[in-house]
């Protein structure tokens, strides 16, 4: 069984607010499966469903957002589930634009009180989460406008589909499929053809932050950079935190730094925006960008030249069944 938790606040006055996107997603999944989320256990409304043959428990904590961890911890214990393998949490994200979805396997709360409560109660950040963007809306307890609700309706379908892909094909496939910005529809401005191989470029952005940077602040920075990528119609291929390492030389007053490697795919404008954000970010002490698809082409070309030289310099083969061919001497 998998536990799928949507975060929000109980009460009709909060039902259609940005902070309740998690609840709304659970309702959408339940509606699609013709089940009701109304059983009360472990301070949550729950309902059982089957998604592509897998049994899941849908849950909406009734503790209010800031105490969500109490309910999630209780449900995991009740069903003898492990957060690392059996838990999916769905919630709203201020750092992502409305209509955007982002799946992550782990990470800090990035300031979200519901996630902060869950991480504190479970004692781990190692669990899957689906973040649903609400920016630029800052008033998270104000009801959506009619115009916003049209976007919300689409993203709820997308989030429900993402859950299905996670369960059937795994988190990596879901991240690859959903962690990108949708293309504009006809009549809504120019479409950048990033599907065209001539415009697709893959970059590695290595940046180093101060060794004393708080984990929560680092997560916010990474989230901001990921948003910059999706806003430029790019794709985040991988984020790797490489930990604290000794610097090759002193930068400012720092002898050590936290290394992060970001692999992205997109156009040149994407990199300009990433580098601009890194340049103005005070905790970043150094960064380097490498276009790795171009580097691979260069290495392939060198290999081709070397292979061609080997063929030219190879000695003539001996006649079958005889001595090696004689070399004429002048």
What does this structure look like?
The chain is of the alpha/beta class. It is built from 9 helices and 11 strands. The protein has a 7-stranded mixed beta sheet with strand order 2-3-4-1-5-7-6, with helices on both faces. The chain is globular, with a radius of gyration of 26 Å. It starts with a strand and ends in a 17-residue tail after the last helix.
Task: Just name the CATH architecture of the largest domain.
Answer: 3-Layer(aba) Sandwich
Strand count: 11
Helix content: 25-40%
Give the domain tally: 2
Distance between the termini: 84 Å
Task: Provide a quick synopsis of the model.
37% of the residues lie in helices and 28% in strands. The protein has nine helices and eleven strands. Strand 3 and strand 4 form a beta hairpin.
Helix and strand layout, with pairings?
Layout: E1 2-6, H1 21-32, E2 39-41, E3 44-51, E4 54-61, H2 68-78, H3 83-86, E5 87-97, E6 101-104, H4 113-122, E7 128-135, H5 146-169, H6 171-178, E8 201-209, H7 215-231, E9 235-251, E10 254-266, H8 268-280, E11 284-291, H9 292-313
Parallel strand pairs: 1-4, 1-5, 5-7
Antiparallel strand pairs: 2-3, 3-4, 6-7, 8-10, 8-11, 9-10
Helix pairs in contact: 1-5, 2-4, 5-6
Comma- or semicolon-separated keywords:
single chain, about 325 residues, alpha/beta, Alpha-Beta Plaits, seven-stranded mixed β-sheet, globular
């Amino acid at each position: 069984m998998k536990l799928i938790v949507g975060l929000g606040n109980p009460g009709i006055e909060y039902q259609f607010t940005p902070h309740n996107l998690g609840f709304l997603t659970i309702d959408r999944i339940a509606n699609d499966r013709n089940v009701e989320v109304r059983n009360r256990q472990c301070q949550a409304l729950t309902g059982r469903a089957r998604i592509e043959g897998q049994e899941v428990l849908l849950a909406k904590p009734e503790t209010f957002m800031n105490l969500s961890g109490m309910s999630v911890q209780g449900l995991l214990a009740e069903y003898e589930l492990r957060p690392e393998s059996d838990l999916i949490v769905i919630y709203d994200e201020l750092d992502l634009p409305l209509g955007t979805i982002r799946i992550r396997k782990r990470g800090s709360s990035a300031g979200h009180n519901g996630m902060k409560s869950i991480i504190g109660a479970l004692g781990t950040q190692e669990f899957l989460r689906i973040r649903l963007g609400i920016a630029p809306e800052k008033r998270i307890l104000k009801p959506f406008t009619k115009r916003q609700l049209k976007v919300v309706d689409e993203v709820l379908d997308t989030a429900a589909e993402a859950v299905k892909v996670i369960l059937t094909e795994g988190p990596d496939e879901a991240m690859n499929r959903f962690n990108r910005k949708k293309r504009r529809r006809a009549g809504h401005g120019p479409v950048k053809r990033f599907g065209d191989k001539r415009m697709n470029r893959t970059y590695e952005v290595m940046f180093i932050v101060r060794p004393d940077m708080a984990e929560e602040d680092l997560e916010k920075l990474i989230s901001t950079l990921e948003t910059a990528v999706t806003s430029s119609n790019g794709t985040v291929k991988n984020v790797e935190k490489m930990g604290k390492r000794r610097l090759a030389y002193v930068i400012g007053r720092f002898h050590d730094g936290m290394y992060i490697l970001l692999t992205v795919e997109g156009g040149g404008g994407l990199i300009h925006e990433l580098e601009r954000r890194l340049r103005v970010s005070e905790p970043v002490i150094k960064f380097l960008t490498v276009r790795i698809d171009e580097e691979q082409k260069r290495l392939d070309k060198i290999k081709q030249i070397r292979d061609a030289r080997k063929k030219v310099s190879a000695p003539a083969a001996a006649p079958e069944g005889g001595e090696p061919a004689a070399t004429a001497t002048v």
